[in-house]
Amino acid sequence: MAATKHAQQIKQDSQEYLTTALLQLLQTTDLPDIKISQLVSRAGVSRMAFYRNFETLNDVLVAYFEPEIRQIFDEVLNHVAPVEKLQRLSEYLEEFGPALKLSIQRHYEPIIRQIFFANMQRFYESDSSLQQVPAAKRGYWIGFMSAGIYEIWREWLLDDQQDTLHDLHELIAALQTATFKAVII
User: Fold this and answer.
1) Cα gap 125→115, rounded to integer Å
2) CA nearest neighbour of 87 among 6, 149, 29, 179
3) Residue at which a domain ends, from 54, 73, 89
4) What is the pLDDT tens value at each position of the chain, 185 positions in all?
5) Helices then strands (H, E): number in the chain?
6) What is the DSSP string of 126-155?
7) Through-space distance between the first and last CA atoms of the chain, rounded to whole angstroms
8) Global pTM value
9) What are the residues whose beta carbons fall under 8 Å from the beta carbon of 60, sequence distance 6 or more?
10) C-alpha dihedral sign at 149, 75, 122, 129
């Protein structure tokens, strides 16, 4: 049992070292330009340690960002009154802004987008009023709203947050309401 705990600790340490090293490299280097040999050297682990934990550099980023983004959505889903959910989500997205900007700059934004979309699906599926939308349209509507909210958030961040979060929240709420009405017909 002690060997198992020790092995688990080594695995966890390797994952943390690799993640930290990758995030450091991304401060100055685009993801496609980072080589695994460069990463393991920086992390101070063997190439084998990398492949015991991950298949690709993308996997390192997914392992890092998925729990972080999930936690943001879990907080909104489980601890916020329904009328405040969209506003709170906007506030969290503002806090996450620097990470998104770096992902755009260093060419790993599709990873963030994919995780965001999966969590937006959870967000919308938790809304019981969505049951009014015919099943055939529900998935399309969730995809449409997820992509729309992501792009609004992205453009807002890239535009140095010219509009207030309140204005952003109002726009998203209006779009959500209008499109929701369109699909329940």
Assistant:
1) 16
2) 149
3) 54
4) 556 888 788 889 899 999 999 999 999 999 999 999 999 999 999 999 999 999 999 999 999 999 999 988 888 788 777 677 777 777 777 788 889 999 999 999 999 999 999 999 998 888 888 888 888 899 999 999 999 999 998 998 888 888 887 888 888 889 989 998 888 86
5) 8, 0
6) T-GGGGGS-HHHHHHHHHHHHHHHHHHHHH
7) 60
8) 0.85
9) 18, 19, 22, 39, 54
10) negative
Query: Which of 176, 156, 33 has its CA nearest to residue 100?
Result: 156
Asked if 48 and 119 sit in the same domain, the reply is no
Domain residue limits at 136: 57-183
Are residue 69 and residue 22 in the same domain, yes or no?
no
CB 76 within 8 A of CB 89: yes
Q: Nearest-CA neighbor of 118 among 86, 150, 95, 94?
A: 150
Domain boundary among 30, 54, 78: 54
31 vs 51: CA distance, rounded Å: 18
- The tens digit of pLDDT for each residue in 136-178 reads 899 999 999 999 999 998 998 888 888 887 888 888 889 989 9
